[in-house]
Amino acid sequence: AQRVTQPEKLLSVFKGAPVELKCNYSYSGSPELFWYVQYSRQRLQLLLRHISRESIKGFTADLNKGETSFHLKKPFAQEEDSAMYYCALSPPTGFQKLVFGTGTRLLVSP
Amino acid sequence: NAGVTQTPKFQVLKTGQSMTLQCAQDMNHEYMSWYRQDPGMGLRLIHYSVGAGITDQGEVPNGYNVSRSTTEDFPLRLLSAAPSQTSVYFCASSYDDSGNTIYFGEGSWLTVV
């Protein structure tokens, strides 16, 4: 069964602190992994995806196939990072068929 | 450039009523899809379309119909609304299925009483 697990509903940190949003997945095969973000009053948007191996807004995510994890990290959190973050996977040839986790709300305090 | 536009934004229905959630995109995207998000859950795929005239079921298709007569529009029809269909509905589109960015609409909040 395909499943994405985000164990933390809320992660609260202070500005400048490191951030790690956890994501574990279950999939028989090699899925594509994504992180989506939804800022207040904005649409859900792609933050980054494993296939491109980019760093966006200082965030990176490493795919660990052994642990089936795709944790999102940032060394120094900013207040503008406060948002809802969703981890998602798709089949390797079906990027439209996303399976989402339940999301983690990141709150960065000054 | 409007992107993905969903209407209505808010709707209250009575059990048994039918309605259509509209989704339109102006980016000439082939791929479109509908998701629903229930409280405390992630988005779940209802139906998707890989091009005009072609649709397929996602994870939770029961109680919903779709059609894709044009590239721009992908309406979602609730045939006989049930309280279990109270949810936030998101429409999404992308240029193709090769991993290009998926664009989401703002969401439609539906309450069935």
In brief:
In chain A, 0% of the residues lie in helices and 48% in strands.
Kindly describe this structure.
The complex is a heterodimer of chains A (110) and B (113). By secondary structure, chain A is an all-beta fold. Chain A is 0% helix and 48% strand. Chain A contains no helices and eleven strands. In chain A, the strands form three sheets. In chain A, strands 2, 5, 6, 9, 10 and 11 form a six-stranded mixed β-sheet that branches. In chain A, a hairpin with a 4-residue loop joins strand 7 and strand 8. Chain A starts with a strand and ends with a strand. Chain B has 113 residues and is mainly β. Chain B contains no helices and eleven strands. In chain B, the strands form two sheets. In chain B, strands 2, 4, 5, 6, 9, 10 and 11 form a seven-stranded mixed β-sheet that branches. A four-stranded antiparallel β-sheet of chain B has the order 1-3-8-7, with no helix packed on it. Chain B is globular. The interface between A and B is medium-sized, with 21 and 28 residues.
- Share of helical residues of chain B: under 10%
Average pLDDT confidence of chain B is: 93
The 3D shape of chain B can be described as globular
- Helix/strand order of chain A, N-terminal first: EEEEEEEEEEE
Rounded to an integer in angstroms, the radius of gyration calculated over CA atoms of chain A is: 13 Å
Secondary-structure-based class of chain B equals mainly beta
| Structural class designation of chain A | mainly beta
Topology:
The complex is a heterodimer of chains A (110) and B (113).
Chain A: E1 3-5, E2 10-14, E3 19-21, E4 24-26, E5 32-38, E6 45-49, E7 60-64, E8 69-74, E9 83-90, E10 99-100, E11 104-109
Parallel strand pairs in A: 2-11
Antiparallel strand pairs in A: 1-4, 3-8, 5-6, 5-9, 7-8, 9-10, 9-11
Chain B: E1 4-7, E2 10-13, E3 19-25, E4 31-37, E5 43-51, E6 54-57, E7 64-66, E8 76-78, E9 87-94, E10 103-104, E11 108-112
Parallel strand pairs in B: 2-11
Antiparallel strand pairs in B: 1-3, 3-8, 4-5, 4-9, 5-6, 7-8, 9-10, 9-11
